[in-house]
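Sequence in, structure out. First:
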Amino acid sequence: MSTYNIVSQLEAHTSPIRNILGTSGCPGLSIGAFHSGSIVHTQHFGCKDIESEPLETPDDDTVYYIASVSKIIAVCALGTLIQEGILGWDVPIREYLSEFRKRNDDLGQKTTLRDLAANITGLSPAVTFGMHMYGERVLPKTEFARLIAHMEPVSPFRSGFMYAAWNYVLIQAITERVTGEDFGTMVDRKILKPLGMKRSTFETPLSTNIMSAHGTLNNGSCHRISINKTNKFDSETGLSAVMGGKSTMREMLLIFSSLLAAYVHQRDNAVDTTPNSPFVQLRTIFSPHVAVPPSDIQAQAYCLGIYRSQLPAVLSRASMNYAFLKTSSLPIFGNSDTHIAGTEVFHHTGNHPGFYASMFLAPASQTGVICLTNATPLVDPTDFAAQMWLATLLSPRPHTVSTHMHMPDFENMAKQVARANIGAFERVARYLESKKSDIRPSLPLEKYEGVYTNTVGNLRYKVSMAEEIDGDGDAEGLLFAPLDTKLTRYELKPWDGDTFYWRADRDEEVVGKAMFPAPFVGVHLVRFAVRDGRVESLMWQHCPASKKPEVLRRRTVMAKLA
């Protein structure tokens, strides 16, 4: 099979990818592939910054934030420390983090690095307490371990898969505490530099050839958002292992082709190292550790920092597209294609405000596809575009149209996802408005003012009187904000007695505030507990997966803060 034939077949998807990109509202996109271990093609669409003059198209060396696609690289760096005997997969983390030694449940007594990397601790998937509006952080990273050590899990320990950023926050905390080295510096020294990478980093990128972060409004228009000025997702933030990677298309293809080659070598030779490769412990890292519902562990699983699926399978499982498509509409990759039945594909999708990324790896043919974009979109174009290329590369003879794999209608699916995304917020907004009652707050609004803290006392929120809410001239409301932040504030209006709400508005959350969008009713409600004419606490279900809201107790009245 000639490179020319592969390239021509990949470029046959140009028009559908452009259409999906248009539906998503993203300004730019880069996609690239390697096959039989060699880079075969890259393609770039749109622009790096919607506000630049003139508009510039990304290229192979343009830096993107790769969000949770970082996790597998982070785990591979962790693997080098385990290979050296500095850390252990199955050593309880209480041996590394003293904050967990006072906790007597399974989470405190038994949790290991393996549990963290496999996402089976039962910790909350929400990152609300890690960052709020504009990526603004609530706590310094030195407080994260103490915060997490007092968290209530949202599912039983080791009972199943629960994707949670907090697990990887702890991985960073452990490696930094044991080695005394910043996580990003360690990744650079252990993985990136040995591979010859010059633009990839888990710290602040130095290149001026970089994508700007954007958000897409419901009408499909795109606007630049302020996120990376307040949060570089570097070692200093404590979020580097979670979503801190930045890289280019050229270097992503080199990293993942090298990773896949090392994995195949170690698997086939039953070893944990590969000559002239920084990647180690890959049999452990790529081993299925927990089933991803609703599949069994053989059909679809989470390994350590990466998903594994056996075809045919829903490869969109890690993408926002999965959440917004009905089960009957989900694309089943390889369905009716008997020649690839049983083929394993490793994959991950990542997102944080302003960026989305997808990665798919097929070891049997040493094939990989990477796709990156620079917006919080209406639909994840990286997921669908990458699957289109992957389908072409896994066809038995890509140059022969009659042998192409069955291709789902990704363009139509993209429109479905976009409608469902907008509709999810509209339903929450309608619910909040329709259930709003005439029951007034039981106390004058100034009585709700004060500082509310978590049980540890390191997380503090201020409630104060609002002069005006939503610019509508209505002065009846409260401001709810982390005490030590400058940009984040939730504008609360009375909803039902002592329950207040902040508006569900996707445009405002994605573009106006550069947030992780939250189309969930509970996230938008703040309930105050009043007893004997005094506010004792507030309750906020910031994590949709949690069975009960977080309780923040009132500690100080505003007068005492002066």
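Second:
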Amino acid sequence: MIKMLIVDDEPIICQGLATTIEWDTLGIDLIGMAHDGQEALPFLERGVDLILTDVCMEEMDGLELSKYVCEHFPSTKIVMISGYDEFQYARQAIRLGVEDYLLKPVNIDELVDLTTKLKQEIIEKQRLTQAEQPKRISEYVMHQLFNTPFSSSVAEKKQLLTSPYRLMITECVDYHYLLEVLSKDELDQFKHDFRVSLDEMLTEFEVEHVTFSGHENEWVTVCYCHDEHLLDLSQFQQLCDKLQKKLAHPIRFGISNLEMELSNVLRVYEQVSDLLTEGRSENTLLFSVQIQRSKKKELSYPKEAEAQLRQVIMAGDDSLLQETVDQLFLMWQEQGVILEQVLYTCREMELMLKSRIKELTSSSKMAQVTFHLQERVDLQIVNSMSAMKRLFIGDLRCLLQCITHHEGENWMMVQIQDYINKHFQLDLKASDIAEKHFITPNYFSVLFKQETGKSFSEYVNSLRIRKASELLSETSNKVFEIAEYVGYKEYKYFVQVFKKHVGVTPTQFRRMHANK
């Protein structure tokens, strides 16, 4: 049925027009009567398809009302009824867009024929408008969000959507992973399957909708329906659950509040986008503006984690690097920080690690190391903690490889051996050297044996005995002085070690070389 309003300043005429004809049998719903144009305005806001109005009324006459309706509600048809058989009224009414001009007393048959004819025109236009509505809504929303072209009058925009709606934004979780493992055709097929499934399920839920893409990993859907119950949040939770079961990859949902004005769609979109931005570090798949969320914590710079990562990288231990990064990201996830903050913190850690390791190694190759996270990162693509972690650990492995393949040698052992050669006379301990080079004592022992074929103590003793042998043969220093010089505090122990390595005591060694 179409909605009709009668406007006349004479109550008896209003009542006569309302009761003389059984409007409901004609498919017309008489929603009310007003006694001047001003009284008619509130009805217009609720939706009116056809107006029967008098011309001469005090507050706002029929011509003023017609002008207002044509400007603000162009789809509403008007029939003007007047006792004035004056051409100027009729001409002015026609110019304003009035459908017809009837004289009082109204011929009932003529009025029935006219309203029946107009009803059919209204229904046909509504049918055509309804068919075009999704396209027009989509164009209007895209214009509001992305400033795409849209030509329409203010009045037409206002009548684009008169029912309540929710705006929904969906995206693939860890889209970066899909880009890595799927071909372009496979990814396009996945997106197609998602769109088809989304359309089918919303249709099944009896929710009208329009969906379009605002980004390669973003779908914006305006869900609208006159029955607010069909737009209940529980419906969208069911939609989310069903889609997760049907698709091979998880989808994240952001849902707006129930809205009435499509002109506010930009604000609504930004609200939902911000909601998703805050939630990308979580494992949750459905976020609603309607649900109150706790405020995200600020992320403080993890100095201890940086020190651990530096030690692991310097040690060249890839498995421990993975374990350390896993623990760091688990801590961040439990703290409930925003993914954007994680990105900025990872960037800072990378630069600090590179700078510090470059100081320690003096490696020329360090300047050539580049990081993916230092480039532009789209958080709608790298939109999960797992994606961020993969990129971060990939960057750190570049540092690790630069150290472990330093000019064809094990850089760590070059540094350690150089240190021992310069300080062998001191009371050296394996644990102290390991700490100085940011590795664990156990890893130090394994690495040292692997690279030199000797234990740490064997290597130091052989270095000291070699130096002692040179001094015994080339100087006249006393044996106990030479023992102290090369790092032995106990003379008897020095003699014991010397004989084990050379086969004779220090004194015997000196005599043998003195004879030469």
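Remark: The chain has 21 helices and ten strands.
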